[in-house]
Structures are given as C-alpha cells and as structure tokens.
Specification:
This protein is mainly α. About 60% of the residues lie in helices and about 0% in strands.
C-alpha cells in the first residue's frame, strides 16, 4: 500500500509542470520539490509529432497549429465523451441486480451530464460566435452524447424522462 501511495500521490500539476523549467534554469525548487509532472491529457492522441516548447506555446495561444489531423473533436465534446465512457464502464462493473445505491448514482451522474450538455449546447447556440462554422457539428455531437448517455443509464435506471 505504501509503494502504491508513492506513485499515486496527488500533487498540484501546475507546480509539477513548472518544475521542469526551474530545474532546467537552475532555479531554486526546494518549496516545490524536484518532482516533474507530465500532463498528456486525452487530447494528446491528436498530436502526431514531437514539438519544441516554443512551438507548443504558439499552438496553445493560437499563433500556429501543430495538429495535422482534421478529425479532432471540440474539447467539450471530448470531455463529455470521456464522462459517458466512464459511466458506461461503471455500469458494466456494477453487480446485478442493481442496488438502490447504484440507481441513485447513475441517476445523479446522468442528470449532471445532461445539465452539462445543455449548458454547452446553449453556450454554442447563443454565445460562441467564434465557432460559427463548426457550431452545427458540435451541437450534433452533444446530441449524440446525450443519446449515448441515455443508453448507458437505461441499463440501470430503466425508462428515463
């Protein structure tokens, strides 16, 4: 257990990401510690080459585009799809017959995701002028995720509203 706790210790990822720069530039890092965090995230799958820090910063701030793929979903769509996949896996791991606790968990999780989907759809429908050319595609992706979510929850909760 002690060895496990060492490798899954929670840390402030901002500090861990910044530590690499401190080490490289021989700047004091005693308060932060020597640990360097690597935060690939789910969108790492859409990068196809190694880049320099300068190139990555340019990409982050929209000055360049280092992603060659064109099938990358919007980050909100990807985030929601990860949550739907998570719930699907949790439902598949639940013992049958489903307990009242499992029903409540799935209902709450589903409601929160539905609320998030509606929030994002409203954001893109009424407030996101910068995404006009992809708005319909993004909103359709949200609708598809809502359908997937309902299918997952149906296994536990039954007919949903």
């Amino acid at each position: 257990r002690e060895e496990f706790d060492k490798i899954v210790e929670k840390s402030c990822i901002c500090v861990g990401l910044g530590t690499a720069a401190l080490l490289k530039n021989k700047i004091e890092h005693k308060a932060e510690g020597p640990g360097v965090s690597i935060c690939p995230g789910p969108n790492m799958a859409y990068f196809s080459k190694q880049t320099t820090l300068v190139e990555m910063v340019g990409h982050i701030y929209g000055k360049t585009n280092i992603i060659e793929r064109t099938d990358r979903p919007h980050m909100f769509v990807k985030e929601l799809s990860l949550y739907v996949d998570y719930l699907r896996n949790r439902v598949n791991e639940m013992t049958r017959p489903f307990s009242e606790k499992n029903h409540k968990y799935v209902e709450t999780f589903q409601k929160n995701l539905h609320d998030g989907i509606e929030y994002y759809k409203d954001l893109f429908q009424h407030k996101a002028d910068a995404f006009q050319e992809k708005k319909a595609q993004i909103i359709q992706s949200f609708d598809n995720l809502k359908h997937d979510l309902d299918d997952v929850a149906m296994k536990v909760v039954g007919v949903l509203q």
